[in-house]
């Protein structure tokens, strides 16, 4: 950078300096749903595992951000959605086509009557005509039009005017980049968060029966009938009145606010039509069967009065006494099912498979969805309708009028599912089961995003939780029917106990009304019962004991109780569940207690230090339990003295199920084992340690841990995913932490690494887990992005520190012979295995054993473990960094090494899912740099040379793997693409961390390696393009490309001014330099590395041919386009001087585009077919589109500009079968071209143009010509213009018509076939037959815009109007540059023709008034500067020019008319003054008007007449010309024009009568017998009208007539043998004589000798050609 000038250095720094670091390591606090995070109870010393879990759940995210990546804002700006405010900054552009549409339609339809019309049909005296014009009011005139100004000043004024009010960002106006191509967008993974399914809010409003005599208690839960599973915990609530609550006061010590909830939030992950909400109702235990107790509810009605009233009072008193005595016991009473089918709408459930399942990780096969979609449900931001919850699911009131009576012998869940299945099938259940009349009112609705005053299942308040507490809502925990693959992020530790059945049938008579008291004990003493059982409704929050409901006189009762327990964080062998069985006396007997003890049972919570869950059948002890009973399970109690007395002789009589929902207990053997062994390494433990049912000594610890690492991937997928964050953290910890076990160093790096690889493989291969659009597993992506951090050094060092005497090992890694696949040199340099005499003896045997185990594993697992570990460690000193402690390894070095030395299946998997390891590498390198504070150091010395070697090897391997896959069959291509994209992102990240030269070398190797291995060119270009596109999206891309360096290829001033060049020898050298700036030279590629590569690919793609190349070309253009777009919208590149530099970087693109000229889609051809005026053209006319045909190509190439060279050059082009670009690709390329032209230094461009050969200049003009049509304004796509049905119908009709024509024989059929033949056109899509396919034309059709609002359409129109104006102004600037640069050139006559063609083309398009003002100003400057050339050579241009200017004279826009009139007057004035060539201009103007009148449908004679009056005013005010004949001639001309207009009015009246119209046209044509030119124009007009009416014979007559006229004049002018002898030749044929009996007399021989006859003949000559076609 030293040789740059200060300005360039400053610019480079502004764009994000090199020296500063790009990556920022940020700690972001976790978002917590609850007011306080969920934590274990205080004051307990936690197990290491629990501590690690809690630590993982509460620690902050560690995120590595790219500091300057403004791409997010830019991307959002590029998406149209976020342009909301941008369009407000734009100026509304006025287009005539729209002003006409907006005016009253009827006004256009009817003929316009002029205010003053004198009869000029008799061609009366001139004064009458003059009077007619003079009676009108002229428009405002342009000031200073007639003042004499030098051409240079005039150009300068124009340029200044054009520079004001311009849109700074061209790409802000251009539609956004196609998402499909935007590979550089790396989706940010969804932040890991607690899983919540579809949430529904259930409010209990009323619970009433016919009589109200006692308190009732409701519990609500969800059941899935099809899966036969309870899918939520219970929600308890009661709606008892204060009076009934009073009955129970003795049994309610306190009432917690949380127990008063009457509304619950249920969560359903897998909605289905089989889900039922079941409400169970209990009452206080009383004497009698359920049926007896329910009878009063069925027979008595409160409304009956009289005796009923007495009965009710009696029942109330009875209930009160039962409540006082038995208030803490319940009995079953009634239940009611509520189907949720109508809520989980069955019709939308088809989407369940994709949308709902993706939420928990399932995504349908072959579908790539982004993480944001896949976790959408857990966001709950969208309505439930998205996820199979019906759209009619508003807040729905539900009323139930009858309940089923509970059956005492059918209370189990099994019975319930049978009932529900019957209920679902038919209503027979109502007949079989007695029902109780009652009223239950609920309200069910989708739960809102934010619920005030809500409690989690652990009773933690959820934000927001207002101070003034209302009745809270409760979140009810879901038990999903299938796995939910969302890692744990909050501490949750709940146990659910379900007593199911007790069999005391053979027990003594006393056991009849049985209840079970359930307690969670921390010891065997009675006061060890822990208050951790969640309370029910209207009571304390936590209880020490809970009783099951009693079934009256049933010795083998079923239970449906659910006991929810908050497990202590630290569990010991003393913790157990204690069940005490009682008989309850319902009758009050003197002195007898209510409870009679029947027996005990228990269940230890831990077995082998692992939580016990599942189903158990426990024996019941009938007497007091012996001491230390809890140390053993009830089934395996050792013999006691005295012996324990058991029911049924120690058989199991009590069935129970225990389930845990815990983010601490893994409930998986492999995980349990792995964590236990890891912790035994980390903290002080006494050996032997117990792992499950095995004791492990210190000597076997290493072996066991390696085994557990190998088996880790055998664990079930769900627990593995749930504990994924912790498992990966532990594995990474092991990989860098050499342990000393029993005095020997043990190394687990390789095993830990292989375990990580196996897990990554499992997660990617699981069909149940979601992937993002790049095929990355979402769980791993979010782990790397948020959770992963460098493993911390071990907490206590006594066991883990290596002996201090060891020299610095490079990586403490065991060498492995199996790594032979990697180049042997690398291995020698890195993995030298020196034997360590200390590690001998029994250890080797263990090695063998592990080897055997590993090889045996291969069969049953998909991970081929080809590796084994040898003894020894590497004592290779590190080459660049200072010595570090032996126990310290750098994670990034270790990971890179493991990737390099992996073999077999492991290696294959590593590179298949390389993205994951790459992102781990990058994040660990970023943290390493952040921690070591090496940011001040040179990047070159940040990382060791060994590490760089490893990175080089990795990149080479990935590249060759990718190439190898691409050679394989098609299905491997997708995998190759993913690897290619992963590698690109990796190098992208390395550019922010490592020495950039090193990374550039890697990129170079990549490109060379791919080229060497791939023969398929489209595939090769496509892969490299995606790769480069990602690299080029780097936030420091401009600096990486040394964009400021092009200062020394041009003059060394900030704006490359030519004047700073003094010596002539220097300037000739300078010319070469400037010319080379627009070419892709080797020097350029060397200096601007990435851009050079990208341009090389673009040029190769455009030049290539073959199958599938058009897609590659689109990709290539899209890459460049998105790059320029991001610069244009980058806030760092706002300054013009920065944009000049950037544009200079992209100058070679101009050369590439010019070379691709013959391949560009030709919008002008499409326009010609569709009729220039799109506003009123029918759909039929608008359809055509296609490529440039040969004739047009010749014309465009400048054949009609007297440029033979260019013509011959391009005429040879069609022989090369070019691959034509489609409309969108061409438009993207054009906008890039315009952007460069807009932002490049204009002086430089002029200098470049001045040195170009004329052929290249004509190419530039051709390009501008296409550009004009490409960016033409298409008008507001109003949504009501086209109805889809109509369009569809017309398409069908067209398809049928086409079919009929193709089937038909004869000329038409032949023609249709020819049109469809592939050779007809050089365009790839021809067989798709663009003629009829509206959706493939270059601008999307109106019906696609159906769903847009008017505001959106207006906004789009505003933006596209501004785009059209800005694009055309850039084209105009460019033409001005060409004009100025070419003033000194010899070929300026041909150039002038080219410039005029482009200007005339732009005038014939729909343009805004802004553009027209500037365009006419340029035209006037052109007339002033090159008037003589204009009137001598460019005959056709002059004719076209007159016609376009005259057309704008009839414009309804005052501004446009003013400009057009001034231009037309100036044209006349110069033609009179400079060359005395006024006769020709008169001629052209008259002919133009005649043809306008005949053709233009939107032509308005009223405005035109006013324009004529304005021109007359100019003539009268022009003092300088008063002395000449000019004013008189102008007046004469205007009078003539006025009379033509008069004829027009008459023609308009006969518009609907074609016969009459033709007659009139013929009469008008005849009236011009003295003016052959007008005669010809009218004959031509007639021919066109006949053609439109399909009267071909009449059209032929007109044309032959015209040809005869021409022939006559030609024979007068020059006598050549090859010319026909005047009109006589046309009379030779008898048929022609019949057709044209009066032909001879109509050709006036007299006029031919008059002045300007030869001019007329020149003008007529094209028609001769025209007639000859016929």
C-alpha Rg (nearest Å): 45 Å
Task: Estimate what percentage of residues fall within beta strands.
Answer: 5-15%
Number of helical stretches of at least 4 residues: 62
**Content-based structural category:** alpha+beta
What's the end-to-end separation, in Å?
70 Å
Extract low-pLDDT stretches: 70-83, 104-128, 346-359, 362-392, 796-887, 1047-1066, 1171-1215, 1278-1289, 1303-1346, 1628-1670
- Percent range for helical residues? 40-55%
Note the main sheet: 12 strands, mixed
Shape: elongated
Mean residue pLDDT: 76
The number of E-state strands comes to 30
Keywords:
alpha+beta, four-stranded antiparallel sheet
Plain-language structure description:
It contains 62 helices and 30 strands. With 1670 residues, the protein is of the alpha+beta class. The strands form eight sheets. Strands 3, 4, 5, 6, 7, 8, 9, 10, 11, 12, 13 and 14 form a twelve-stranded mixed β-sheet that branches. It has a four-stranded antiparallel β-sheet with strand order 20-15-26-25, with no helix packed on it. A four-stranded antiparallel β-sheet has the order 19-16-21-22, with no helix packed on it. α21 packs parallel to α26, α30 packs parallel to α35 and α45 crosses α46. It is elongated, with a radius of gyration of 45 Å.
Concise overview:
The protein is α+β, with helices and mostly antiparallel strands and 1670 residues long. Helices cover 47% and strands 10% of the residues.
Which helices and strands appear, and what pairs or packs with what?
Blueprint: H1 6-14, E1 23-28, H2 48-58, E2 61-66, H3 71-78, H4 96-102, H5 105-109, H6 126-134, H7 151-163, E3 198-209, E4 216-224, E5 229-230, E6 235-237, H8 242-247, E7 263-268, E8 275-284, H9 290-299, H10 307-326, E9 330-339, H11 355-359, H12 371-374, H13 376-379, E10 396-405, H14 413-425, H15 428-432, E11 435-446, E12 454-455, E13 461-462, E14 473-475, E15 493-502, E16 514-521, E17 533-534, E18 542-543, E19 545-547, E20 563-566, E21 576-584, E22 595-604, E23 606-607, E24 610-611, E25 614-618, E26 654-662, H16 669-682, E27 689-691, E28 694-696, H17 698-711, H18 717-722, H19 724-736, E29 739-741, E30 744-746, H20 749-765, H21 778-787, H22 824-830, H23 842-860, H24 891-901, H25 904-912, H26 914-932, H27 945-967, H28 973-990, H29 996-1013, H30 1017-1032, H31 1037-1040, H32 1064-1077, H33 1082-1087, H34 1089-1103, H35 1109-1129, H36 1136-1145, H37 1147-1155, H38 1163-1170, H39 1179-1182, H40 1190-1196, H41 1204-1211, H42 1223-1239, H43 1242-1251, H44 1254-1270, H45 1284-1303, H46 1306-1316, H47 1350-1382, H48 1388-1404, H49 1409-1432, H50 1435-1449, ...
Parallel strand pairs: 7-14, 12-14
Antiparallel strand pairs: 1-2, 3-7, 3-11, 4-5, 4-6, 4-8, 8-9, 9-10, 10-11, 12-13, 15-20, 15-26, 16-19, 16-21, 17-18, 21-22, 23-24, 25-26, 27-28, 29-30
């Amino acid at each position: 950078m030293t040789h740059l000038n200060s300005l360039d250095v400053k610019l480079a720094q502004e764009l994000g300096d090199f020296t500063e670091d790009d990556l920022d390591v940020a700690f972001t606090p976790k978002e917590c749903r609850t007011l306080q995070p969920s934590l274990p109870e205080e004051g307990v010393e936690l197990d290491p595992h629990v501590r690690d879990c809690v630590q993982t759940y509460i620690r902050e995210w560690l995120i590595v951000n790219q500091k300057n990546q403004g791409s997010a804002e830019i991307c959002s700006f590029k998406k149209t959605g976020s342009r909301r405010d941008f369009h407000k900054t734009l100026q509304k552009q006025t287009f005539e086509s729209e002003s006409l549409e907006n005016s009253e339609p009827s006004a256009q339809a009817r003929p316009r009557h002029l205010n003053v019309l004198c009869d000029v049909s008799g061609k009366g005296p001139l004064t009458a005509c003059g009077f007619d014009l003079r009676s009108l009011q002229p428009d405002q005139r342009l000031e200073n039009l007639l003042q004499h100004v030098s051409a240079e000043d005039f150009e300068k004024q124009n340029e200044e005017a054009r520079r004001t009010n311009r849109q700074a960002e061209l790409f802000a106006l251009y539609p956004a980049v196609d998402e499909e191509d935007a590979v550089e967008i790396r989706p940010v993974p969804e932040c890991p968060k607690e899983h919540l399914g579809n949430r529904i809010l259930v409010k209990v409003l009323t619970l009433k029966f016919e009589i109200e005599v006692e308190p009732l208690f409701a519990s609500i839960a969800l059941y899935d009938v099809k899966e036969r599973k309870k899918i939520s915990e219970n929600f308890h609530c009661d709606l008892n009145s204060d009076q009934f609550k009073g009955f129970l006061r003795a049994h309610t010590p306190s009432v917690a606010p949380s127990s008063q909830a009457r509304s619950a939030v249920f969560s359903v992950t897998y909605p289905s039509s089989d889900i039922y909400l079941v409400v169970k109702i209990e009452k206080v235990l009383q004497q009698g069967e359920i049926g007896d107790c329910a009878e009063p509810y069925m027979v008595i009605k409160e409304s009956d009065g009289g005796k009923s009233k007495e009965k009710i009072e009696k029942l109330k008193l009875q209930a009160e006494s039962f409540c006082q005595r038995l208030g803490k016991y319940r009995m079953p009473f009634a239940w009611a099912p509520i189907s949720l089918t109508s809520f989980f709408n069955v019709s939308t459930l088809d989407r369940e498979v994709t949308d709902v399942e993706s939420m928990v990780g399932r995504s349908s096969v072959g579908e790539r969805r982004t993480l944001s979609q896949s976790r959408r449900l857990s966001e709950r931001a969208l309505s439930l309708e998205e996820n199979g919850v019906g759209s009619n699911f508003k807040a729905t009131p539900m009323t139930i009028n009858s309940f089923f009576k509970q059956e005492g012998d059918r209370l189990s869940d099994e019975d319930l599912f049978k009932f529900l299945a019957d209920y679902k099938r038919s209503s027979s259940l109502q007949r079989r089961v007695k029902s109780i009349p009652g009223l239950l009112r609920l309200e069910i609705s989708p739960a809102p995003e934010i619920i005030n005053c809500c409690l989690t299942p652990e009773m933690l308040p959820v934000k927001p939780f207002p101070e003034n507490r209302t009745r809270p809502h409760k979140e009810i925990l879901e038990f999903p029917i299938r796995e939910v693959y969302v890692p744990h992020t909050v501490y949750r530790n709940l146990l659910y106990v379900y007593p199911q059945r007790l069999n005391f049938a053979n027990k003594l008579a006393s056991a009849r009304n049985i209840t079970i008291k359930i307690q969670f004990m921390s010891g065997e003493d009675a006061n060890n019962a822990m208050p951790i059982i969640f309370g029910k409704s209207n009571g304390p929050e936590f209880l020490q004991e809970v009783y099951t409901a009693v079934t009256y006189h049933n010795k083998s009762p079923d239970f449906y109780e659910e006991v929810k327990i908050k497990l202590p964080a630290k569990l010991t062998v003393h913790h157990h569940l204690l069940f005490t069985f009682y008989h309850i006396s319902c009758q009050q007997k003197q002195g007898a207690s209510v409870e009679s003890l029947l027996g005990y049972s228990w269940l230890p919570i831990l077995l082998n230090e692992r939580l016990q869950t599942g189903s158990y059948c426990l024996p019941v002890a009938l007497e007091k339990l012996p001491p230390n009973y809890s140390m053993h399970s009830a089934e395996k109690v050792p013999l006691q003295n005295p012996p324990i007395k058991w029911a049924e002789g120690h058989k199991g009589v009590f069935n129970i199920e225990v389930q845990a929902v815990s983010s601490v207990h893994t409930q998986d053997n492999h995980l349990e084992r792995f964590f236990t062994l890891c912790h035994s390494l980390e903290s002080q433990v006494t050996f032997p340690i117990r792992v499950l049912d095995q004791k492990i000594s210190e000597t076997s610890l290493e072996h066991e841990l390696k085994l557990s690492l190998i088996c880790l991937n055998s664990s079930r997928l769900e627990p593995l995913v749930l504990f994924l964050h912790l498992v990966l953290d532990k594995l990474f910890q092991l990989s860098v932490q050499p342990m000393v076990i029993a005095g020997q160093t043990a190394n687990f790096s390789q095993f830990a690494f292989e375990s990580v690889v196996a897990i990554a493989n499992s997660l990617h291969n699981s069909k149940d887990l979601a992937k993002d659009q790049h095929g990355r597993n979402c769980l791993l992506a979010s782990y790397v992005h948020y959770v992963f951090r460098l493993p911390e050094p071990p907490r206590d060092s006594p066991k883990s520190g290596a002996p201090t005497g060891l020299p610095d090992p490079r990586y403490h890694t065991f060498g492995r012979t199996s790594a032979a696949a990697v180049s042997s040199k690398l291995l020698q340099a890195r993995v030298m295995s020196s034997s360590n005499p200390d590690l001998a003896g029994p250890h080797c045997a263990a090695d063998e054993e592990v080897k055997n185990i590993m090889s045996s594993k291969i069969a049953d697992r998909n991970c081929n473990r080809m590796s084994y570990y040898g003894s020894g460690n590497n004592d290779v000193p590190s080459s660049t960094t200072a010595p570090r402690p032996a126990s310290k390894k750098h994670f990034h070095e270790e990971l890179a090494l493991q990737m390099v030395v992996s073999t077999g299946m492991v290696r294959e998997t590593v590179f298949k899912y390389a993205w994951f390891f790459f992102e781990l590498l990058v994040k660990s390198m970023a943290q390493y740099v952040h921690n070591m504070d090496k940011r001040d150091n040179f990047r070159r010395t940040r990382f060791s040379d060994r590490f760089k070697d490893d990175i080089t090897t990795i990149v080479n391997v990935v590249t060759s793997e990718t190439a190898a896959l691409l050679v394989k069959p098609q299905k491997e291509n997708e995998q190759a693409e993913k690897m290619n994209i992963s590698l690109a992102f990796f190098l992208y990240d390395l550019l922010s961390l490592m020495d950039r030269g090193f990374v550039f070398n890697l990129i170079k190797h990549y490109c060379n390696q791919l080229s060497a291995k791939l023969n398929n060119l489209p595939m090769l270009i496509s892969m490299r393009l995606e790769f480069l596109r990602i690299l080029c999206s780097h936030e420091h891309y401009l600096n990486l490309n040394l964009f400021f360096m092009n200062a020394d290829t041009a003059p060394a001033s900030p704006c490359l001014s030519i004047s700073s060049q003094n010596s002539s020898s220097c300037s000739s050298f300078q010319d070469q330099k400037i010319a080379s700036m627009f070419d892709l030279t080797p020097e350029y590629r060397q200096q601007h590395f990435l851009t050079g590569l990208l341009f090389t690919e673009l040029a190769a793609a455009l030049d290539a041919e073959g199958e599938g190349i058009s897609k590659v070309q689109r990709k290539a253009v899209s890459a460049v386009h998105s790059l320029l777009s991001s610069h244009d919208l980058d806030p760092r590149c706002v300054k013009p001087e920065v944009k000049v530099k950037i544009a200079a970087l992209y100058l070679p693109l101009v050369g590439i585009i010019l070379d691709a000229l013959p391949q560009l889609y030709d919008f002008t051809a499409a326009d010609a077919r569709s009729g220039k005026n799109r506003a009123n053209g029918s759909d039929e006319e608008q359809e055509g589109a296609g490529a440039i045909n040969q004739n047009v190509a010749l014309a465009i190439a400048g054949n009609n500009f007297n440029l033979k060279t260019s013509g011959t050059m391009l005429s040879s082009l069609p022989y090369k079968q070019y691959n034509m670009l489609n409309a969108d690709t061409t438009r993207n390329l054009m906008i890039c071209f315009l952007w460069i032209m807009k932002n490049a230094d204009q002086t430089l461009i002029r200098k470049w143009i001045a040195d170009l050969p004329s052929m290249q200049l004509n190419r530039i003009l051709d390009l501008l010509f296409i550009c004009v049509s490409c960016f033409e304004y298409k008008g507001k796509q109003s949504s009501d213009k086209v109805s889809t049905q109509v369009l569809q119908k017309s398409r069908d009709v067209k398809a049928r018509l086409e079919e009929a024509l193709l089937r038909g024989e004869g000329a038409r059929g032949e023609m249709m076939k020819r049109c469809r033949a592939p050779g007809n056109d050089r365009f790839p899509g021809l067989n798709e037959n663009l003629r009829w396919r509206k959706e493939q034309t270059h601008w999307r059709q109106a019906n696609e815009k159906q769903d847009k609002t008017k505001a959106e359409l207006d906004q789009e129109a505003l933006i596209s109007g501004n785009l059209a104006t800005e694009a055309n102004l850039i084209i105009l600037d460019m033409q001005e540059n060409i004009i100025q640069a070419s003033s000194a050139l010899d070929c300026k006559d041909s150039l002038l023709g080219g410039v005029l063609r482009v200007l005339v083309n732009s005038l014939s398009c729909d343009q805004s008034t802004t553009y027209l003002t500037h365009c006419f100003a340029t035209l006037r400057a052109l007339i002033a500067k090159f008037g003589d050339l204009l009137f001598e050579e460019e005959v056709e241009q002059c004719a076209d020019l007159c016609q376009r200017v005259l057309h704008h004279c009839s414009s309804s826009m005052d501004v446009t008319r003013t400009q057009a009139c001034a231009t037309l007057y100036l044209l006349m004035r110069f033609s009179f003054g400079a060359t005395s060539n006024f006769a020709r201009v008169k001629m052209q103007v008259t002919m133009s008007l005649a043809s306008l009148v005949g053709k233009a449908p939107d032509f308005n004679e009223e405005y035109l007449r006013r324009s004529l009056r304005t021109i007359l005013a100019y003539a009268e005010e022009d003092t300088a010309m008063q002395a000449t004949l000019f004013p008189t001639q102008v007046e004469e001309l205007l009078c003539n024009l006025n009379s033509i207009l008069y004829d027009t009015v008459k023609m308009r009246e006969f518009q609907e009568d074609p016969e009459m119209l033709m007659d009139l046209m013929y009469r008008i044509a005849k009236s011009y017998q003295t003016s052959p030119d007008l005669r010809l124009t009218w004959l031509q007009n007639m021919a066109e009208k006949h053609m439109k009416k399909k009267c071909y014979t009449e059209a032929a007559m007109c044309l032959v007539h015209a040809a005869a006229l021409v022939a006559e004049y030609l024979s007068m002018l020059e006598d050549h043998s090859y010319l026909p002898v005047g009109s006589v030749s046309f009379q030779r044929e008898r048929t022609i004589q019949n057709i044209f009996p009066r032909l001879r007399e109509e050709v006036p021989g007299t006029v031919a000798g008059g002045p300007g006859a030869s001019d007329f003949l020149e003008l007529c000559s094209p028609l001769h050609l025209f007639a000859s076609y016929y």
